[in-house]
């Protein structure tokens, strides 16, 4: 077997392999987001996605060949966003060459490329059929991606969530810049909750910078500047904020909208506040024209997974990460 770096001349072979991966995924995942069901031919979409890769020094495609025939490929990239500085974007082996160690060999070559570029951790997304493969290679789960259609015409399952809250629970309203300190408190509570729940999370999440609260405040500023693209709803008792939900429109993600955080203070749980917040967020998504909504759930947060599944969310992909060894001096 030969593993080499692919270039633009390998475009037809890579597209064929990628299309096979896509069709296999569709066979084992019956429910797919609409953005991943394009009207144009799959090969046309894949060719467009590949176009910027060939000349990008931050990305690589490795091709495995057996007897001169393409057997599999892997695409890796360096990224700026959390949770890790590198990602395995796609890994696939054609059906006639599976269970021969080709996938593992491709992955090891891609990880070596990441290490050579001083990435200390790497993440990837896996369908449910690939979970055992990645876990055997030391990958740990970070979160599960769920999605569901947003309500039509701004309607939610509870029609008027604000009016149905018990008076002592407060009211749901849109957050304002004056709420920044209280929202940062809640957001920091979310971060600490997940740190206790997931001791094996990526370093960027487990060990945030000392100025994490000021960074959260800076992130909030985007919500005040662009309220038509992202917003926050809070539960306000009149004395304090006891819960919040962050939601944003997404241009190039799984779904056109994403619920980015949902949290209710411990003392105010079991009152339906999470459901009311979610209903209001989904209604906002529908008002903005988003036909589907996605979110991430920690695999250890079983109660949250059940909550979202009761609301009609479908588990779709699992995100994994793995720590990488340091680059050896002289390499």
Summarize the structure.
The protein is of the alpha+beta class and 331 residues long. 34% of the residues lie in helices and 27% in strands. It has two domains: 2-138, Aminopeptidase, CATH 3.40.630.30; 147-316, Gcn5-related N-acetyltransferase (GNAT) (Aminopeptidase).
Report on the structure:
With 331 residues, the protein is an alpha+beta fold. The chain folds into 2 domains: 2-138, Gcn5-related N-acetyltransferase (GNAT) (Aminopeptidase); 147-316, Gcn5-related N-acetyltransferase (GNAT) (Aminopeptidase, 3-Layer(aba) Sandwich). Helix content is 34%, strand content 27%. The chain has 10 helices and 12 strands. The protein has helices at residues 11-28, 42-50, 102-116, 131-136, 161-164, 180-197, 203-206, 212-225, 273-287, 302-310; strands at 2-5, 59-66, 69-78, 86-93, 121-126, 140-149, 171-174, 230-236, 241-249, 257-264, 292-297, 314-323. A 12-stranded mixed β-sheet has the order 1-2-3-4-5-12-6-11-10-9-8-7, with helices on both faces. Strand 2 (59-66) and strand 3 form a beta hairpin. Helix 1 packs across helix 2 and helix 6 (180-197) crosses helix 8 (212-225). It is globular, with a radius of gyration of 22 Å. It starts with a strand and ends in an 8-residue tail after the last strand. Mean pLDDT is 86; it is low at 154-163.
């Amino acid at each position: 077997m030969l593993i080499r770096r692919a270039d633009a001349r390998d475009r037809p072979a890579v597209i064929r392999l990628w299309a096979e991966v896509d069709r296999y995924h569709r066979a084992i995942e019956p429910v797919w987001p609409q953005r991943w069901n394009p009207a144009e031919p799959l090969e046309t979409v894949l060719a467009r996605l590949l176009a910027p890769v060939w000349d990008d020094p931050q990305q690589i495609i490795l091709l495995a060949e057996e007897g001169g025939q393409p057997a599999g490929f892997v695409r890796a990239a360096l990224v700026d966003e959390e949770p890790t500085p590198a990602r395995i974007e796609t890994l696939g082996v054609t059906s006639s060459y599976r269970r021969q160690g080709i996938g593992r060999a491709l992955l090891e070559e891609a990880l070596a490329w990441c290490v050579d570029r001083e990435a200390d951790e790497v993440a990837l997304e896996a369908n449910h059929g690939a979970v055992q493969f990645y876990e055997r290679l030391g990958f740990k789960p970070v979160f599960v991606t769920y999605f569901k259609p947003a309500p039509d015409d701004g309607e939610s399952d509870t029609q008027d969530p604000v009016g149905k809250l018990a008076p002592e629970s407060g009211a749901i309203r849109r957050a304002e810049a004056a709420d920044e300190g209280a929202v940062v408190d809640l957001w920091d509570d979310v971060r600490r909750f997940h740190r206790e729940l997931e001791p094996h999370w990526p370093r960027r999440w487990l060990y945030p910078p000392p100025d994490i609260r000021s960074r959260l405040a800076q992130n909030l500023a985007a919500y005040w500047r662009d309220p038509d693209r992202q917003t926050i709803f809070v539960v306000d008792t009149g004395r304090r904020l006891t819960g919040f939900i962050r939601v944003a429109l997404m241009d190039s993600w799984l779904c056109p909208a994403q619920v980015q955080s949902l949290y209710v203070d411990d003392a105010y749980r079991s009152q339906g506040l999470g459901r009311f917040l979610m209903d209001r967020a989904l209604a906002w998504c529908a008002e903005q024209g988003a036909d589907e909504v996605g979110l991430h759930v920690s695999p250890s947060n079983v109660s949250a997974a059940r909550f979202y599944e009761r609301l009609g969310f479908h588990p779709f992909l699992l995100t994994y990460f793995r720590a990488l060894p340091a680059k050896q001096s002289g390499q």
